[in-house]
Specification:
By secondary structure, the chain is of the alpha/beta class. 44% of the residues lie in helices and 14% in strands. The strands form two sheets. The protein has a five-stranded mixed β-sheet with strand order 4-3-5-6-7. The protein binds zinc ion.
Length: 200
């Protein structure tokens, strides 16, 4: 292997790492060096875990969560309250609510929020399937969206889309600060927000 091609492979690794959230080029270079130095302890197990994840993890065609099975473990769990669907923007929000253990119902992941300036309209989000799911046995749709302008305008749009389907549409209330993102909230705040939800 020539020096030049080895260098370009490291550069490719750095370029890919730099695309991860929170990692700029400088941090990506540091991460790449650490990986290459800790070949047996870190690089090889990470490469194996990534290959396995790429091969086995799929999107749940019902709710938009990711899992090794489709429908996902949550959608398949008969102990879950089938009457409630909790709508979140991102999978990270679902994970935050699951960590807090405050949701007994099912989920629906939108994959983001409406953002016309970024070209994100209703067709870019997982909204069609939510409207289809808004039928018995479901009776309540809880919009657990971020307390941001985009999150709230998305909630407003969803409320209109769900109108007339016999659902009680609720949203998070007290607890979520303005500008707050669910993924960053502690369990107590999330629990308070779920408990004090109200009908729209
Ligand atoms: Zn699912």
């Amino acid at each position: 292997m020539s020096k030049k091609s080895a260098g370009s492979e490291i550069e490719r690794l750095v370029q890919l790492l730099a695309r991860l959230p929170g990692l700029g080029h400088r941090s990506a270079r540091k991460a790449a060096l650490t990986l290459l130095k800790k070949r047996a302890d870190l690089l090889e197990p990470l490469a194996a875990a990534l290959t396995e994840a790429a091969a086995k993890i799929v999107e749940c065609q019902t709710c938009g969560n990711i899992d090794t099975v489709n429908p996902c473990t949550i959608c398949q769990d008969p102990r879950r309250d089938q009457t409630m669907i909790v709508v979140v923007e991102e999978i990270g929000d679902l994970w935050a609510l699951e960590r807090a253990g405050v949701v007994s119902g099912l989920y629906h992941v939108l994959g983001g929020h409406l953002s016309p300036l970024d070209g994100i309209g209703p067709d870019q989000l997982n909204i069609g399937r939510l409207v289809e799911r808004a039928a018995p046995p479901a009776t309540e749709i809880l919009l657990a969206l971020n307390a941001t302008v985009e999150g709230q305008s998305t909630a407003h749009y969803l409320t209109e889309q769900l109108h007339g389907r016999g659902m009680t549409v609720t949203r998070l209330a007290q607890g979520v600060p303005m500008g707050g993102e669910l993924d960053y909230l502690d369990e107590g705040t999330l629990a308070a927000a779920i408990k004090s939800r109200r009908t729209l």
